[in-house]
Amino acid sequence: MHVWCGRIGSKKVAGGWIAIPICRGALEARDALRLLSERKDKLADVTTGIFDSGRESRSWVDDRRYGVPFMGSSAIGLADLSTLPLISKKQVERNPRLLLKESWSLITRSGTIGRMAYVRPDMAGMACSEDVLRVVPDESKILPGYLYAFLSSKYGVPLVVAGTYGAIIQHIEPEHIANLPVPRFGHDFERKVDLLVAQAANKRDKANYILREAISELISTLRLANLRAVPSSTPFSVSIAPAVDVQYRLDAFFHSSYHRQAIAALESSGADLSPLRSVVTGIEEPNRFKRIVLDGDTAGIPLFGTSAIFWNDPEPSYRLPSRLAAHCIVSRKTLLVPRSGQLSGVIGRTVLPYGRIIGGAVSEDAIRIHCHSEEDAGFLFVFLSCECGIRQLKARAFGTSIPHLDVRQIGDCTVLARSHPLWKRLGHRGLNVSALRSQAIDLENLARKIVEAKIKSEED
After folding, report:
1. What is the structure's pLDDT at 257?
2. DSSP letters for 244-296
3. Is 224 helix (H, G, I), strand (E, B) or coil?
4. Pair type for strands 301-304 and 361-362
5. Cβ–Cβ under 8 Å, residues 102 and 204
6. Pairwise CA distance, residues 202 & 436, whole Å
7. pLDDT attached to residue 345
8. How far apart are alpha carbons 214 and 208 in whole angstroms?
9. Which residues contact 104 (CB under 8 A, 6 or more apart)?
10. Residue 18: what pLDDT?
């Protein structure tokens, strides 16, 4: 959903004048809710709390035995949370407000205001930034899925964002949304919406579980258990053998133990191995092209950036004419690998398209790996998401300020030969991850549409 906000108008207060936040859609949303004959409750009256965790310095750790996955404000909308940094358990024990619980609604409150997420089962127990408001439903008064569907609807978002204050870095506080009106339509209707949101959350949770289990089977079968996940930004020892080794790549990171350990683990597995380029139909990096942005949300082809392809519900940057976007359209036979970014970030992370990405266009900042079949794409998605795949891709990055991947070298990554039985078994699981994420998007969008249609019909 696109929400426009600005600073139009002013208000006199003690000591001078302040800007009044104006959000396109806020006045219309408030008027629509005011016209409803149904009861409307204040948000504060149907919740047991609206709060953030409080600002404090963070203590980071590298070992999961001593840490808790930590989400920043941009991470609450990620589909896969397996790469989150770890904050010290001791810090979490000192400040339990950091922790999330299932069925809460999350709202970003600083910077990009009003992005929302529903706490699904795999997010419960994780820690979260002070830049995210926790909206805790009182389940004796309102169903959590219904509350989230309303808050994230085209009526709820503008009202939340309208409470923004600040000029350069904008914020909202709990008191700014405490009086936000929540329309009530009876238990049966709200239960229907709640079930849709809960089903979407469970499908996202199941997708991540299937991916974890598929990676675990890969690790177990190939005996890669000693290849522990480590931050790619950590310095590693480098030892070069014959001079011929550096004729291909001279940079130290490529020859570091971070990369060498991955190759050695695969070679010691005893499985038949192949270079990636020999098991796919092609690996390409589209050329930069001219953008002609279309007005509206339906015309043309949606274009996604490399950040959006990792979100729960990928949102396009804008829409392009079909003739311009045709060469960038992707399918479920196409794997996407961001070609630039920080080593600890998205660079080298593989995405199997889901939701609106399928049939949409993705910017030239994502390298395409074209596979023979969807099943092949499913397997390579699992393999390249495993530590042995991630290390090979990240180790091929070059540059210091903004590392890049060279599309010509991606094909040299080592993978299992196509004759290995894991290709078919794990390929189906990889495809299931994509399917479940797509289904979750549809269910959550349906929940919002039902709420919006109900408000619209009552308004008319």
Report:
1. 86
2. GGGTT---GGGGBHHHHHHHHHHHTT---EEEGGGSSSEEE-PPP----PBSS
3. coil
4. parallel
5. no
6. 9
7. 86
8. 10
9. 118, 119, 134, 135, 136, 137, 144
10. 37
CA 362 – CA 317 distance, rounded (Å)? 10
HSE at residue 408, side-chain half, CA atoms within 13 A, is: 3
Element (H, E) at 334: strand 334-338
- State the residue for tokens 């990240």: 394
Task: Compute the distance between CA of residue 90 and CA of residue 373 in angstroms, rounded to an integer.
Answer: 47
| Backbone dihedral angles phi then psi of residue 322, each to the nearest 5 degrees | -55, -35
pLDDT at residue 7 in the model? 40
The β-bridge partners of 337 are 367
Give Cα 364 distance to the centre of its chain: 19
> Which stretches within 128-268 are classed as H helix?
144-151, 156-161, 174-177, 187-222, 257-267
Cβ-Cβ contacts under 8 Å for 274 (sequence gap 6 or more): 414, 415, 416, 417, 418
How far, in Å, CA of 215 to CA of 232, rounded?
19
- Cα–Cα distance between 249 and 95 in angstroms, integer? 47
The residues of the chain scoring below 70 in pLDDT are 1-24, 164-169, 228-248, 459-460
- Using CA atoms in the order 348, 352, 355, 359, what is the torsion angle rounded to 10 degrees? 100
Closest listed residue to residue 183, CA positions, set 25, 33, 30: 33
d(CA 68, CA 74): 17
Cα angle at 380 between 376 and 386, to 5 degrees?
A: 155
Q: Who contacts 126 (Cβ-Cβ below 8 Å, separation ≥6)?
A: 68, 69, 70, 71, 81, 84, 99, 100
The conformational region for residue 83 under phi > 0 = left, psi -120 to 50 = alpha, else beta, is: alpha
Q: Which of 327, 315, 321 is nearest to 293 (CA)?
A: 321
CA-to-CA dists, residue 317 to 83, 293, 301, angstroms: 24, 10, 11
Separation CA 386–CA 224 (nearest Å): 10
Tell me how far apart the 2 most distant CA atoms of the chain are, in Å: 81
Find the radius of gyration of the CA atoms of the chain.
24
Q: Phi then psi for 382, rounded to 5 degrees? A: -65, -45
Q: Give DSSP secondary structure letters for 60-114.
A: EES-TTSEEEEE-TTGGGBS--TT--EEEHHHHHH-GGGB--TT-EEEE-BSSTT
Distance CA(214)–CA(386), nearest Å, equals 9
